Amino acid sequence: MQRIEQAAEEKLTKLDLSDLGLEEVPLEIGKCTRLVRLDLRGNQITSMPEAIGQLSNLTRLWLNDNQITCIPEALGQLSNLTQLDLLNNQITSIPEALGQLSNLERLDLDGKQITSIPEALGQLSNLKTLDLLNNQITSIPEALGQLSNLERLDLDGNQITSIPEALGQLSNLERLDLDGNQITSIPEVLTQLPKLKMYIG
Known about the structure:
- The protein has 201 residues and is mostly beta strands.
- It has one helix at 2-9; strands at residues 14-16, 37-39, 60-62, 83-85, 106-108, 129-131, 152-154, 175-177, 197-199.
- It has 2 domains: 1-91, Ribonuclease Inhibitor (Leucine-rich repeat, LRR (right-handed beta-alpha superhelix), Alpha-Beta Horseshoe), CATH 3.80.10.10; 114-201, Alpha-Beta Horseshoe (Leucine-rich repeat, LRR (right-handed beta-alpha superhelix)), CATH 3.80.10.
- The longest helix is centred in the first third of the chain and has 8 residues, at 2-9.
- The chain is elongated and about 55 Å long.
């Protein structure tokens, strides 16, 4: 694609390929190594090439509103990534490799079909926002209690039945949204978090 070739040749730092009807991302994207922001939202993309892992300077990646079914392990190589947006796709699982994104501050995986949260997400020490609403998740792993910088956790519209006490360690948590689940009790430790507003229905 001409835009990708141009971005590589001119060493561009931003590339907008949104709403172009793309069904795949050309392998040539791996040559755009200076990219800091890549916008691919609003296409018909079903999968991402492993070459995406070569974009080592990328800080923001928008992939929302596509048809992606699988998150490539290569995304775990994007060590400078601060924002990863994958909402409204067809993703069924989250790879452990995402736990390697040590600078990630926002992860958005709103969707329909994810059933579990990998323990590896507990390694995202800089994460501030985790959005997983409207999936099929049944439990919250204890490891999320390690997300010391987390400010917002949105798990609205899942199938969760209990809240682990480990979330009581999240001293910076300001919003916990668990509406639309089957929660029957709230750990007392959560009521002691000074900044926290809970939405549980």
